Amino acid sequence: MVSRRDMLLTLAATGAAALQRRAVAAVSPHGQSSITPVDFPVPAGACDCHVHVFGDPRRFPLSPDRAYTPPPAPVSELRRQLRRLHMDRVVIVSPSVYGTDNECALDAIRQLGGRARGIANIARESSDAELDRLRRGGIRGLRLNFETQGVFDPKVAIERFRLASTRAAGLGWHLQINTRLSIVEALENEIAGGPAIVVFDHFAQAEAARGVDQPGFAALVRLLTSGRAYVKVSAPYRISMRSPDYADVVPLAQALIAANHERVLWGSDWPHPDAARRPGRTATDVAPPLSVDDARVLAQLTIWAPDAATRRSILVENPARLYGF
Fold first, then answer.
1. What is the pLDDT of residues 39-75, one digit of tens each?
2. Are the beta carbons of 199 and 229 closer than 8 angstroms?
3. Three-class SS of residue 175?
4. Of 224, 187, 180, residue with least CA distance to 205
5. If we measure between CA atoms, which residue out of 237, 292, 273 comes closest to residue 32?
6. Residue 213: how many CB atoms within 10 A of its CB?
7. Predicted TM-score of the model (pTM)
8. CB of 191 within 8 A of CB of 177?
9. Would you state the pLDDT for residue 34?
10. Which end of the chain offers a freer environment for a tag, N or C, measured as fewer CB atoms within 10 Å?
11. What local confidence, expressed as pLDDT, does residue 21 receive?
């Protein structure tokens, strides 16, 4: 049976691909990102807070336990992507396909210098010396990827959260979590009284079609309001049934920004990896990235946050505070 999330991704990819066939726009060498120009003033110091880099597999081997196999998305292409979107800074999230090996992300940060920070995946047995090495390499947070790992049991999520939160706080880092609203709700008290600030990926996987009254969304809003959590209004195509402009996402984005715009971040999710299970495709088959018009996605921020000062907070001030730019 095809899951709801796989269906969402299929519809999003189909809609975005149809849009690009109609648009008069060039396409990047990897085919996943339009180079349609950005049509609003992006403030200096803007940060794309969620990208991945996939290096040469001969140098950066993929985990044998990975859920999918992406094509390469090197730093050279990321540089072009940042120029297209007028982004001066970037946060590289170490993807699940590398397991707990963060060398590809560290290498990308070294190449990009002071404009880049990173988020790492670590093993429970990682030593303090290893975490200090990651810190010196530009890592500023730890990631719990519950969604990709299939962690949907609140008890398991709470146990893993407690351990990771303690380690992150000891380094002065935050904890980035890719999970759904039911787990956000289960973690609310832990986060409210825990030692580390939390960042939720991709609208905390809220279902855009269900609106602001869906279970768990109020818990997310409360955590933003209290200042204990941030949320990335990133990758709307992963939660929307209405590509390419994602009109069903507007109420969610506006509610989160209204709750506390100082706890909202923006990210492209470049190069838009497709981790969904597809009929006939195995984990070792190369999974083409989703086709996304990044400039058009970025332009949605002018609808979600019409005020330029609020957009500056989301794009510049909040990332500078959280990641230490």
1. 999 999 999 999 999 999 999 999 999 999 999 999 9
2. yes
3. strand
4. 180
5. 292
6. 8
7. 0.88
8. no
9. 52
10. N
11. 28
What range defines the domain where residue 248 resides?
Answer: 4-323
Please choose, from the candidates 100, 290, 286, 280, the residue with its C-alpha nearest in 3D space to the C-alpha of residue 202: 290
Residue linked to tokens 């709700």:
185
The pLDDT assigned to 35 comes to 60
Contact status, residue 50 vs residue 312, Cβ threshold 8 Å: no
Give Dmax (Cα) for the chain: 52
> Which residues, in sequence order, are bridge partners of residue 292?
33
Q: What is the distance between the alpha carbons of residues 217 and 192, in angstroms, rounded to a whole number?
A: 15
Residue type, 90: V
- Alpha helices in the chain, H assignment, sequence order: 4-22, 75-85, 103-112, 128-136, 146-149, 154-170, 181-193, 217-226, 250-259, 294-299, 301-304, 308-312, 318-323
Q: What is the DSSP string of 62-109?
A: PPTT-S-BPPPB-HHHHHHHHHHHT-SEEEEEPPGGGTT--HHHHHHH
Residue type, 246: Y
**Gap between the Cα atoms of 268 and 234, Å rounded:** 6
CB 145 within 8 A of CB 96: yes
In eight-state DSSP terms, residue 36 is: P
| 103 vs 115: CA distance, rounded Å | 18
How far apart CA 179 and CA 45 sit, in angstroms, is: 29
Length of the chain: 325
One-letter amino acid for residue 234 of the chain: S
Split into its structural domains, the chain has a count of 1
Predicted confidence (pLDDT) per residue in 189-229, tens digit: 999 999 999 999 999 999 999 999 999 999 999 999 999 99
Residues annotated as catalytic are 269
So what's the pLDDT on residue 48? 98
| Mean pLDDT comparison of 35-49, 84-98, 235-249, highest-scoring range | 84-98
Q: Which pair of structure tokens corresponds to residue 145?
A: 């990827």
**Structural Rg of the chain based on CA atoms:** 18
List the CATH number of the domain containing 93: 3.20.20.140
